[in-house]
Amino acid sequence: MPAIVTSFAHPTWAILGDRAQARRAALGYSQAKVARHLGISVRDYAAMESGFVPPHVNESLSKIKLSDLDDILEWEKGTALETVVAVIQPTTSPGTIAFTPGDRSTYSPAAWARLGTAVQKARLALKMSKPVLAYAIQSTGKSVLRIEEGRIHGDPRTAPAGDYNSEKYLLKRLSLLEMALEWDAGQARQILDGTNVTPTP
Fold first, then answer.
1. CA nearest 86: which of 158, 12, 14, 7?
2. N or C: at which end does the chain have fewer Cβ atoms within 10 angstroms?
3. How far apart are CA 22 and CA 30, in angstroms?
4. How far apart are CA 60 and CA 6, in angstroms?
5. SS3 111
């Protein structure tokens, strides 16, 4: 089975990475184990799972044999190739490949805007600066600004240039956000879900 060709770009890795991550977790394998089997670095394999693949990593991933991915993830032969082909849509220009990327967000922009408004209100009520909140959630003041403005994206390709604040990154910090803002555990998720829109600090 052929390797993934070098013209395969981020949307392909996003879909394949999602499936690979879910399967690897179900098998209880580490990223290191899968990366070793594929003959690439753990960092490059982790990039594939995240779907955020810089050009130099794309070059490394282009050397992966899809059959090797099927083998290590105990997929039926051809599963990885089918996953890749599913996101390729030929264009009218011969020899080119077009993609249809999706945002991959768990929550809508409205949900993130709702959380951002609540975060800002709670932060101001506590007389807390953005840098202090940033320190509490192990992030940056710029990230806090983007949170409060609801500018969170599930995929870097859907974000304006230089304005990417990862949903995956932030979801891991919700518990820190709740502690910093003196919210009950789970309140941030409730705000995102729309079941609690007015938490009190």
1. 12
2. N
3. 12
4. 9
5. helix
